[in-house]
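Standup notes, protein team

Yesterday: finished cleaning the Zhongshania aliphaticivorans set.
Today: Ribosomal RNA large subunit methyltransferase J structure.
Blockers: none.

Input for Ribosomal RNA large subunit methyltransferase J:
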Amino acid sequence: MLSYRHGFHAGNHADVLKHLVQVLCLDYLQQKPTAVSYIDTHAGAGFYHFASAFSAQNREFDSGIAKLRSATSGQDFPAPLQRYLEVIDACCKGEAEGYPGSPAIALQLLREQDKAHLFELHPNDHENLRKRFHHSARINDADGFAGLKALLPPPSKRALVLIDPPYEDKNDYRNVITALKDSQRRFPNGVYALWYPLIPRDESTDLGRRLKALSPKNYLHVKLTVQAPAGEHGMFGSAMFVINPPWQLANQLTEVMPILEQLLGDGEHSQFELNSATP
């Protein structure tokens, strides 16, 4: 929906989980010299300044990336979490009071042979993407679900597809299933990373089961709850579902998730769930 602006939520607990998984998946795919295609179906603006009217309104970053940064001096983080923070800091050079979106993170990591395809319908966010990244990515003011079809399979047969619609429209829950079914048919070996919110609605509660049915033998599903549910639309956590996950991702998240639960949750209701299946 064009009313959604991610700037209100940039750098929150959901971004931390989503971008941690994004970094670890890209690192894995780049272990080989073969080119990687990165496809972002809902790219957003690409970078968010904490002083902006959007981010400053709710300051959700205070309970997300800011908590992690403040804790770095007091404890040694596992290598996967440290890697995520290094990438975030590299993206923020010269813009310390801000947080990168998934396009900025991807383009920080992609090599000369890799390709990035970014989809964003909101005119303001699309313009921000174009100004910041037009030299290094293919930027499309088109629907990411529809655009995905034309890009699969990629020429190199290696890709990370990040799917994270706003879910303000209930149809998005159906759209992600349709998109993943079609994408798996076109390109069964792709790495597909889907983010979704944990909210007290049937569409969210049932999505994990529907996703597992798409890839019952090769998936990773991680949920991070940070507070108690509050109202029908209140997000109390988020989840990532990865089809064809990197083989070491489950072990990496096993190290990291207890720390995210401790630092980003409210202590009373915070918890994480992690399960996976491999062929």
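Follow-up from PR in the comments: The CA atoms of residues 110 and 182 lie 26 Å apart.
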